[in-house]
Amino acid sequence: MLSPAPRETRSTNTLSLIPDLSETTEAYLEALQLLERMYRLMLDLLKDEFERLNRNDLTPVQAMILYNLGEAEVSAGELRSRGMYQGSNVSYNLKKLVTMGYVHHERSDLDRRSVRVRLSDQGIEVRQIVHNLFLRHAKGLAMSGVLEDPPLELVNMQTRRIERFWGEQIRYIY
C-alpha cells in the first residue's frame, strides 16, 4: 500500500491547489482511494475465480448482483441500493441475467411498471460460488491476523458512520 509522502518532502509552494491538510483529512482522502481500489480488486478476484472455474458467461458485476440479491425477492431499485455496481447499468445487467436464466422476474400485480426479481437455481449456484470465495478469504485473513488490529468491527462501524454522513449529504441536496 502506498502511503502519503512525509510532510517535509511536500512542496511548500503557496500556489499549490491543495492546501496543507490535517492528518485526519489526509487519512479520509486515503480511505476514499482505498475503498475504490478494494472494490476494483474484489471484482478482479471474482473474475479470476470464475475463469478458474471456466465460468466465463458472467461478468464480476453480474456475479455481485446475484450475490447481493441473495434469497430475497426485490425490485431493481432495491437491488441497486444494496450494492456497488460501478460503471454498470443494473437494469441492463438484470435483463441479461434473466435472459441467461440466473434470475426470475415477475411484474408486480399492484404496479405493472415495477418488476420483482429473485434468483433461479442457476443464480443460487453462482451466489454460493461467490459466498465460498469470500469465506475462504475471511478464513485466510483471520489466520494471518490482518483483521485484528484494529478489529474489523471497529473499521466497519467507522465505515457505516461515513456511509450515514454521505447519505445525509445527499438528502440535504434536494
UniProtKB/TrEMBL annotation:
GO biological process: response to stress
Domain of life: Bacteria
Single GO term (MF): DNA-binding transcription factor activity
Species annotation: Paracoccus amoyensis
Segments forming domain HTH marR-type: 28-164
Cross-referenced PROSITE patterns: HTH_MARR_1, HTH_MARR_2
UniProtKB keywords: DNA-binding, Transcription, Transcription regulation
Name of the protein this chain belongs to: MarR family transcriptional regulator
InterPro entries per record: HTH_MarR-typ, MarR/SlyA-like, Tscrpt_reg_MarR-type_CS, WH-like_DNA-bd_sf, WH_DNA-bd_sf
